[in-house]
């Protein structure tokens, strides 16, 4: 969440190029505001944070791509954005590593606080994910993985259409192999 | 397609042969006419034909071929001998409906056309789309085209097809495919089936049809291929249907596709190719044309949905490639914008601020008061102009405003004189004054109603700008580059259009095949139904003997 920019006397202007991306960033912040003020009735406790984490992820991705793949913004601007919390620096640091290119959130690779010292279910590649495995590995942090929709084990035909969503951020799978 | 079989019963009746003795015609309450035989107490919807009269219909006597001689009399003993307008049907047997309808069809010449290359000959197209050649000098007509006329006709057809931008190479293929067309086994149900088989075989015979013959029209099937499309007959039986039919028959007989025709592979190699690069470039054009901001996200672009309606959107096959293309395009576009901005002179942040001062600053307000009063104004919030600078400019400006007007006037004149001629010249206007002038306090220290006439008067005294030799060179090269780009783009778009057309064609073909398949199924069903009805418990043989008995009886009574 970026800090509110002061309009005071000592305000330093953002680096050049900020005005190009200002509109998109404003849209993101509007979306974020909507998500924050959205009603939470009918949602599970862990679900309430999902849209917020999603928007934050999208914004980080946007800035990351502008800087690293499109090289559309200067280093000064990139640092300014990171410093002003427009982007999640820890997450972007992970994206640079092999195997973490699509990581959804940092919590999903945190193994310390899980029951079996494992990562989140969304880190498992879809190819190796078997039917019904979602329940066993899902979440793993004590909360029941109710979000993993049961695929009807006894049902015929290997559709493999099992939908899993992790508990932390609602990710449906962010393995690099997918 | 499904026309009533009884439709023609009214007006066409006059052309029908008279009923055999013993039969009377009646009208059913539904309007159908039916026939009743008081002696045998039979009633039927199908018109009983007098066997003796049907011989009149077929006239192979002009140039009787051995084949016709063999089949002629026997073939004509039952049912109307008028030929189907599409030879043997795709299923071997003609549908019963077709047969009964055919009975009433009348064909007549519709349009004629001179065949270039064989001068006296005229190609005549009939109402049902069949064609024959006519020689007005010798006053003779042939369904079977003479060799030289045939070649000339092919040539003409091909030209026509090319003109129509039809992509299929039909002329030669029709010839290639028509010959090995398998002979279908006749349905040995009754003699009509025999006759149909005869139809199939003798469509390739040398049958000459004389001018006066207007009822029995024989179809020169082998040379009809190229014009199937133009037909206006009751059944739209065009070139693709033939291809389908051939494939169908080939399957039935276990033939390889090469045996009955050269397949469909040569169909789509014409037209401009649309390479991957081209389609990508088309997509870039699309993004550029819709003035997409290269700094937005792909999701946002999709959300707005302007580009989705454009046909260039489908130049790329899937979402992943589209997204990739967007990434590449935006990268390039941002680079372009950067370069463009670097070329442009930097906008001085002081210009809007000084303009604002010119309008609002008065010696009555101190800087803090002024700042407080106008703190919401855009010019006062600009982050690129530091507060200190702003304050300094304000104070200086107020001090200048306190000077007498004559001093300020001379100050402005001095400013204008100091600007070199290439920046300020005769062609300059109030809107195109150089930045050096706009950022100077002397420019804003006079009220605009005294300042503007002064500046205009000064500009009028100035000479034209000095010619810049370096300006002309790059401009022309830019021009040629732009031309080249436009040309490439046109080519791409043409290719896209062509592909679009091809897709439409393909779609049409699939629909045609589907329709044909359905028709085949319907015919088959009808056939089965008929067969069931005919061969009930007594079987086919009983039916046949009964028919023969009837015929003999009819002949005896006549």
UniProtKB/TrEMBL annotation, chain A:
Main site of residence? nucleus
State its location(s).
Nucleus
| Recorded GO CC terms | spliceosomal complex
Q: Name one GO biological process term.
A: mRNA splicing, via spliceosome
Family under the similarity heading: Belongs to the BUD31 (G10) family.
What is the protein name given in its UniProt record? Cell cycle control protein cwf14
Keywords annotated in UniProt: Nucleus
Superkingdom of the organism of origin: Eukaryota
Automatic annotation (TrEMBL), chain B:
Database matches in InterPro entries: FF_domain (IPR002713), FF_domain_sf (IPR036517), TCRG1-like (IPR045148), WW_dom (IPR001202), WW_dom_sf (IPR036020)
Assigned keywords, A-Z: Repeat
A GO MF annotation of the entry reads: RNA polymerase binding
Question: Could you confirm whether the keyword tRNA-binding appears in this record?
Answer: no
An annotated GO cellular component = nucleus
Superkingdom of this entry's organism? Eukaryota
Q: Where is the composition biased (Acidic residues)?
A: 200-221
> What Pfam families does the database record attribute to this sequence?
FF (PF01846), WW (PF00397)
- Give start and end of each WW domain: 17-50
Record carries keyword Ligase: no
The UniProt annotation puts the region (Disordered) at 1-26, 79-113, 161-233, 465-510
Q: Which Gene3D superfamilies match?
A: 2.20.70.10, FF domain (1.10.10.440)
- Biased composition (Basic and acidic residues) is annotated at 98-108, 161-171, 481-509
Name of the featured protein = WW domain-containing protein
């Amino acid at each position: 969440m970026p800090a509110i920019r002061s309009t005071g006397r000592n305000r330093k202007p953002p680096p050049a190029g900020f005005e190009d991306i200002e509109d998109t960033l404003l849209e993101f912040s509007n979306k974020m505001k909507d998500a924050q003020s959205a009603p939470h009735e009918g949602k599970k406790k862990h679900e309430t944070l999902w849209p917020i984490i999603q928007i934050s992820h999208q914004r980080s991705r946007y800035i990351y791509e502008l800087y690293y793949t499109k090289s559309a913004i200067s280093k000064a601007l990139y640092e300014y954005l990171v410093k002003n919390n427009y982007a999640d620096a820890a997450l972007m640091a992970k994206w640079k590593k092999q195997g973490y290119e699509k990581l959804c959130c940092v919590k999903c690779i945190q193994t310390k606080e899980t029951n079996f010292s494992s990562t989140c279910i969304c880190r498992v590649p879809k190819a190796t994910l078997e039917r019904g495995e979602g329940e066993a590995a899902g979440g793993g942090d004590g909360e029941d993985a109710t979000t993993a929709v049961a695929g009807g084990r006894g049902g015929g035909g290997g559709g493999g259409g099992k939908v899993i969503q992790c508990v932390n951020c609602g990710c449906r799978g962010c393995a690099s192999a997918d | 397609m499904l026309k009533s079989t009884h439709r023609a019963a009214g007006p066409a009746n006059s052309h029908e042969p008279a009923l055999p003795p013993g039969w009377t015609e009646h009208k059913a309450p539904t309007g159908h006419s039916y026939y009743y035989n008081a002696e045998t107490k039979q009633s039927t919807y199908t018109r009983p034909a007098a066997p003796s009269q049907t011989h009149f219909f077929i006239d192979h006597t002009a140039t009787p071929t051995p084949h016709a001689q063999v089949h002629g009399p026997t073939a004509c003993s039952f049912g109307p001998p008028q030929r189907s307008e599409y030879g043997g049907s795709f299923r071997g047997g003609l549908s019963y409906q077709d047969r009964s309808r055919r009975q009433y069809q009348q064909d007549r010449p519709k349009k004629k056309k001179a065949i270039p290359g064989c001068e006296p000959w005229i190609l005549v197209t009939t109402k049902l789309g069949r064609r024959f050649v006519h020689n007005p000098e010798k006053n003779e007509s042939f369904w079977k085209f003479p060799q030289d006329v045939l070649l000339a006709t092919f040539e003409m057809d091909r030209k026509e097809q090319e003109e129509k931008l039809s992509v299929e190479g039909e002329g030669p293929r029709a010839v290639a495919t028509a010959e090995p067309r398998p002979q279908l086994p006749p349905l040995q149900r009754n003699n009509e089936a025999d006759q149909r088989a005869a139809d199939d075989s003798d469509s390739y015979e040398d049958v000459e049809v004389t001018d006066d013959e207007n009822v029995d029209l024989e179809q020169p099937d082998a040379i009809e291929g190229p014009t199937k499309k133009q037909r206006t007959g009751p059944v739209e039986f065009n070139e693709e249907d033939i291809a389908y039919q051939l494939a169908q028959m080939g399957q039935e007989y276990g033939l390889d596709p090469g045996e009955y025709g050269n397949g469909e592979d040569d169909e789509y190699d014409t037209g401009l190719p649309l390479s991957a690069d081209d389609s990508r470039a088309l997509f870039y054009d699309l993004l550029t044309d819709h003035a997409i901001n290269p700094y937005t996200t792909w999701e946002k672009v999709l959300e707005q949905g302007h580009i989705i309606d454009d046909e260039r959107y489908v130049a790329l096959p899937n979402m992943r490639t589209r997204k990739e293309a967007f990434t590449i395009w935006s990268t390039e576009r941002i680079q372009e914008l950067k370069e463009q901005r670097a070329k442009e002179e930097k906008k001085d942040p002081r210009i809007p601020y000084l303009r604002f001062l010119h309008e609002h600053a008065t010696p009555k307000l101190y800087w803090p008061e002024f700042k407080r009063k106008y703190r919401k104004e855009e010019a006062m919030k600009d982050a690129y102009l530091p507060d200190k600078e702003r304050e300094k400019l304000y104070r200086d400006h107020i001090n200048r405003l306190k000077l007498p007007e004559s001093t300020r006037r001379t100050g402005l004149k001095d400013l204008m004189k100091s600007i070199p001629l290439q920046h300020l010249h005769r062609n300059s206007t109030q809107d195109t004054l150089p930045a050096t002038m706009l950022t100077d306090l002397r420019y804003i220290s006079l009220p605009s109603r005294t300042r503007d006439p002064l500046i205009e008067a000064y500009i009028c005294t100035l000479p034209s700008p000095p010619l810049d030799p370096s300006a002309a060179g790059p401009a022309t090269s830019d021009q040629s580059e732009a031309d080249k780009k436009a040309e490439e783009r046109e080519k791409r778009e043409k290719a896209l259009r062509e592909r679009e057309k091809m897709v439409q064609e393909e779609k049409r073909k699939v629909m045609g095949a589907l329709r044909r398949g359905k028709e085949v199924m319907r015919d088959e069903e009808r056939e089965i139904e008929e067969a069931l009805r005919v061969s009930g418990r007594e079987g086919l043989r009983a039916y046949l003997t009964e028919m023969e008995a009837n015929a003999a009886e009819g002949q005896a009574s006549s």
